[in-house]
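Example 351.
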Amino acid sequence: MKGFAMLGINKLGWIEKKNPVPGPYDAIVHPLAVSPCTSDIHTVFEGALGNRENMILGHEAVGEIAEVGSEVKDFKVGDRVIVPCTTPDWRSLEVQAGFQQHSNGMLAGWKFSNFKDGVFADYFHVNDADMNLAILPDEIPLESAVMMTDMMTTGFHGAELADIKMGSSVVVIGIGAVGLMGIAGSKLRGAGRIIGVGSRPVCVETAKFYGATDIVNYKNGDIVEQIMDLTHGKGVDRVIMAGGGAETLAQAVTMVKPGGVISNINYHGSGDTLPIPRVQWGCGMAHKTIRGGLCPGGRLRMEMLRDLVLYKRVDLSKLVTHVFDGAENIEKALLLMKNKPKDLIKSVVTF
Ligand code: NDP
Ligand code: ZN
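Predicted structure in complex with NDP:
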């Protein structure tokens, strides 16, 4: 089979590999739609995972089952499925402790284009099909469905980690696809005021669609000052970080009220440490909580997100700005995520 791969850091290309083989509990899936992720860009161009040679990229896909192992009970060849980007090992102690994302090691629930070949291929392997796949109903278009696999589960996890209460004031830093889903998730959880931080007009408009009540442009000056102005010096109850760098964490600590929560779903790619401003953190005594997490995967998560889409609580189509048909467009779609032209939120390739 063919796959679009990271040949090494900064090197991309098509490669040939043997078709994957399912273990007794696994499935082999043929993709129907895939989407490149900002994380693929971190992987290839920033060496986020260290060097990987000839690793097929991609972790966002919906597809059709091509083969199942002998012990798979609930799925059969031909079923259309949602494939979460996190596919945990469900028989692990970390799962019993409540952290499926870290099954068998920190961040190890994320396997595609990390520990094994990803989804930009004719076929890809899914461990523990009964526990990791969800049926994709015909009512949900492929382009929207593929947004559940990472963008929605990640952004919504941002809102979950932030522990949004009814009426909470929330800042969502970064309004790319992940932050936009942070806004949508915050609204569903009952947030009051939602301030989105970003600059590109297409994202600003979409942030308002998903529930942002105010927008702050980080290119127009210090975001702490802008948010303090908007909140009459009080700050906000919750901050979701889905963009920016190390210094953005310091800004988040500054703008959150005592007792507030900062929920980080951003990838921090450089430096040995992250800054926490001492005084703004109440010299350690301000009850300001900082949490960060990898997106949850698995079947139940996907079925629950699927219901939010099916019953029209969230319209994922607004995230997808560029759609290509045919695997030969994967490179083009991926490079769009690197260059982020002003009209882009997410690109999708259908097969
Ligand atoms: P995008 O690049 O599309 O969005 C980033 C956002 O951050 C944009 O709105 C950008 O604004 C804004 N931004 C950039 N610099 C600053 C700054 N200095 N201050 C404030 N805002 C800033 O990324 P995605 O939405 O695709 O992904 C967001 C992050 O989530 C990435 O780091 C990605 O790797 C990570 N991720 C994490 C996952 C998890 O499981 N935790 C899963 C998937 C992704 P503008 O574009 O207007 O300049
Ligand atoms: Zn991703």
